[in-house]
Amino acid sequence: MKRLLTLLTLxxxxxxxxxxxxxxxxxxxxxxxxxxxxxxxxLGEVFEADVNFTAQNDYFVDFDFNPPIEASDVVLVFIRWExxxxxxxxxxxxxxxxxxxxxxxxxxxxSRNDFTVFLETTFDPALLDNSxxxxxxxxxxxxxxxxxxxxxxxxxxxxxVMELIGATEDDVVTIQPKNP
Length: 180
Prior knowledge:
The protein is α+β, with helices and mostly antiparallel strands and 180 residues long. The protein has four helices and nine strands.
């Protein structure tokens, strides 16, 4: 009986301890704190070039990042695939095209210092019509690592990528390859 009374008393004490009364009025405001350090500004960059893939440049074009990008940044390269009602349609590389002769792949790689866009084929690329190798417009989008790992965007969607990094057509910078 004594144990039951002790448990009942402890239970009631815990019950009343958990209760709260009404919220009181707010206290007076405290003094203004010191200004903190400015926050990190994450800026994406967009570069554009018209390129030609030829036997003279071994079907690749190379570009420098000046200054180098951050080691954690990601680079996406898009190619203008076609236009619809005057609006360019951009496709994320790599892109694969099947021909009777074999396979053509537009591809790219990047480092902190540069990026390269190139053609890979299972046949002699000299057989390609100029429409596949000349005057190809590409855009390289540098995405800060915080955006790249957020999982908030479909990287195949060029317009969505531009919106994510807060870039507009006015922010696109024209660049020239190191090996035209």
